[in-house]
Amino acid sequence: MKEIRLTADCQGERIDRFLSENLEDLSRSYIQKLLKEGSILVNGQCVKANYKISEEDDITVRIPDPEVPDILSEDIPLSILYEDEDILVVDKPKGMVVHPAPGHYSHTLVNAVLFHCKGHLSGINGVLRPGIVHRIDMDTTGSLLICKTDRAHQILAEDLKEHAITRRYHAVVHGNLKEDTGTVSAPIGRNPADRKKMSTKAPNGRHAVTHYKVLERFGDYTYIECELETGRTHQIRVHMTSIGHPILGDAVYGPAKCPFKLQGQTLHAKILGFHHPVTGEYMEFDAPLPEYFVALLERLRMRRR
Questions:
Q1: 125 to each of 106, 115, 162, how far by Cα in Å?
Q2: Helix (H, G, I), strand (E, B), or coil: what is residue 268?
Q3: SS3 of 25, please?
Q4: If residue 16 lies in a helix (H) or strand (E), which one and from where to where?
Q5: Kind of pairing, strands 209-217 and 198-199?
Q6: How confident is the model at residue 67, as a pLDDT?
Q7: Burial, 64: exposed, middle or buried (Cβ in 10 Å; 0-12, 13-18, 19+)?
Q8: Beta partners for 217?
Q9: What pTM value is reported for the model?
């Protein structure tokens, strides 16, 4: 059982709303479930979801340990960019979830990597995310780093935290960007109105920076490269939307209707660079653009002519 202690810093707000705004990983519906079960106490007493907090209320949230299912290895083909006894770099396809989660306990990248590595993966992130140093969205393609040993994982996780890993993405966005290069520096946090989305307007947003440059212009669309300085959830998608240029095909942050037949956002993790956790050698990998992306660029070039 995990226990979280908070002290209320406002007056008159419903406790379920207050907690959903302050505990990013818990949905409001899950918080209401905990309230019904008596797992949330205010000043030592059980309360209902409509309880209105008072400033300085002492709040205790008791979260039961999750039931973790067995994660099975699956013989799923992998596109491997590099592999040695410490690390693995793969080119993730579109439509594949990186690690198991409710609703996706099979056919994930982790299931495939467990089979390929015969279970020899870093255990730092537990049984659901063995070896996973960083993630990309289900419909984002491209390079992803996996660690086979705890030592490699610890070193590379620290490099990621210190912004010492190069991550450059290619994307096609709506509209014609005014400048050839630019930087979006805006905090990102959970959207309080929709917990499945992130926002630059969230009250408890975390520092986030994305650098971009134009690669090619198509009038109504622009082909760009984005380099991450930080790595927040949906960072590029949220940042580009915040400046009026959502990623083409992004049904969550962009227009509902897409003029092209796409499966999610046109976003590809192309360049991944880091120092090897054992040798210290700088290594950089270039995941080739997937076929759908190449075909889209050709179509946009034809339209431009």
A1: 18, 18, 19
A2: strand
A3: coil
A4: helix 15-22
A5: unpaired
A6: 64
A7: exposed
A8: 222
A9: 0.80
